[in-house]
Amino acid sequence: MIEINEIRKELQSNANPTLAVNYKRYLKSQYNFYGLRVPMLRKIAKKYKNMSIYDAMNLFEELWNSGNHEEMNLGIFLLQNYKKQFNLELWHFLMKRIEKAKSWDHIDILCSGILGYILRDNINLTSEIKKLSESNNPWMRRASIITTCQLIRQNKIDLTILLAEKLVYDEDIYVQKGAGWMLREAGKKNRFVIRDFILNHLDMKNAAFSYATEKMMELREARKNQKDYEIFEEVPFNFNPVFEGVGCIVDFNGKVIILKRQKTKSQGDMWGLPSGKIEKNEKPEDAMQREIFEETGLKIEKEKIKFIKKIFVKYKDYDFIYYIYSTKLESKPEIKISLNEHQEFKWIKPETSLKMKNIIQGLDYCVKLVYGLK
C-alpha angle with apex 316: 314 to 321, nearest 5 degrees? Predict the structure, then answer.
C-alpha cells in the first residue's frame, strides 16, 4: 500500500527522539514512538481524507497493527475524516480491534471521536456498552463510559449514570478517572441530577471523586464531613461483607446498659452495647445470647431476646452485616463485665446516650430504632 509508505516517511522525517522518550514515559505505552505532537498527526491524516471509507479502513488496519503508538493515533484520526459515514459497519469493525488499545489516549480518541457518535445515533447498542463495562480488561471498562460522551452532549445522561454506579468504585485508576470525567461533563448538562448522584456516592474512589467534583467544589466539603460509615436497610451497591455481627439493647426500667471498651480494643474508651462477631456456623440469635453472657454475665433465654432488624454497614475499608436485638429485664440484675474487654458499665436513659460524644458508631441508630426516637 503506497499510502502507508508515504505516511511512515513523513513521520520519520518529523521524528523527535527526545519527545518520543517523554511521550512513552508519560503514556506508559508498550508501543514505540516517533515523538510527534498531536496537531502534526492530525495534519498528516487530513491529507488522506479523499480516499473511500473502505480504503481508509484498510489503512487504519495497517496503522493500528503497526506496534507504533503514534501510527495507531494516526489511524484513528484518519477515520475521523469520514464522520458522515460513521455507521454500524464501522462500529463492528472497530469493536473487533479495540482491545489492542493499551493507553487512555487511544481509548479516549477512539471512543469520543468515533464510537460515541455511532452510539448516539444507534441507542440499541446500549447492551453492547453495558457488556463492555463488565469486561475484565480495564481499558474496555473505561471505553464503555467514555463512549457515552456524545449522548451527554445531547443532554442524554441516563446511560452515563447507569455505568457510573459501578465504575466509580472500580479498582483501576484509569477507569475511575474516566467515570469521574464523564460525570463532570454530565454535570454541565444537568447539575442537580449529577450533584445528587455524587452525594449518594460520596464513598466513590478518590480519582473518580476528584474528576467528578471539579465543577462542584462544595461537594468536597460534604465528603470531608461525611461519617466514617454508612448504614443501609437494604443491600447497597458494591457491598462485600467481611463478617457478621450482633448487638443488643438490654433494657431495665427504661434504661439501657452500655459498656466502656478497654483502651487497647478497637474503638477503645468508647461506650457501646453488648455486641460482637458471629462465629463460624453460629446462628445470629445464638451469637447474641453468647455475647450478652460473655460481656455482662447475664443468662437470658433466647426467646426473650427479640430480633429487631438486619442492617448493612459500610466503612471506608470494609463492610459488614449487623443484627440488632433488644431484651427487657424484669428485675435489676447483677452485672459481671469481662475486664479483658471492658473497663466499666452503666445504665442510662436512651435520650442521654444520644447526647454522648464518646459512643461507638451506630449505637445512636440502634437506640433510635428500638425506642422510636428522632
Answer: 25
In tens, the pLDDT along 204-234 reads: 898 999 999 999 998 988 777 666 788 999 9
Digit-coded pLDDT (tens) for 126-138: 999 999 999 999 9
Question: What is the model's pLDDT at position 267?
Answer: 81
Closest by Cα among 275, 242, 257 to 362: 275
- What residues pair up with 277 in beta bridges, in sequence order? 245
The string of DSSP codes covering 50-101 is TS-HHHHHHHHHHHHTSSBHHHHHHHHHHHGGGGGG--HHHHHHHHTTGGG-
- Domain boundaries defined on the chain: 2-227, 231-371
Do the domains 231-371 and 2-227 match in fold? no
Give 369: exposed, middle or buried? Use CB within 10 Å, 0-12, 13-18, 19+: middle
Contacts of 205 (CB under 8 A, 6+ apart): 168, 169, 170, 171, 173, 176
Instruction: Specify which residues 252 forms β-bridges with.
Output: 255, 329
CA distance 269 to 266: 9
Class of domain 2-227: mainly alpha
What Cα–Cα distance (Å) separates residue 166 from each residue in 48, 162, 186, 238, 314?
A: 40, 8, 16, 7, 16
CA 239-241-246 angle, to 5 degrees, is 125
d(CA 58, CA 347) in angstroms, rounded, equals 80
Q: How many CA atoms lie within 13 A of 354 on its CB side?
A: 15
29 CB neighbour count, 10 Å cutoff: 19
**241-252 vs 319-329, strand pairing mode:** parallel
Instruction: Go through 212-229 and write b for each residue having 16 or more CB atoms within 10 A of its CB, e for each that does not.
Output: bbeebeebeeeeeeeeeb
Could you tell me the pTM of the whole model?
0.64
**Strand residue runs (E) in 177-300:** 229-232, 241-252, 255-261, 271-272, 275-277
The C-alpha cell 452515563 sits at 160
| Mean pLDDT, residues 29-54 | 95
Residue 239, phi-psi category: left (phi > 0), alpha (psi -120 to 50), beta (remainder)? beta
Under CATH, what is the fold of the domain 231-371?
Nucleoside Triphosphate Pyrophosphohydrolase (3.90.79)
> What gap in Å lies between CA 234 and CA 248, rounded to an integer?
20
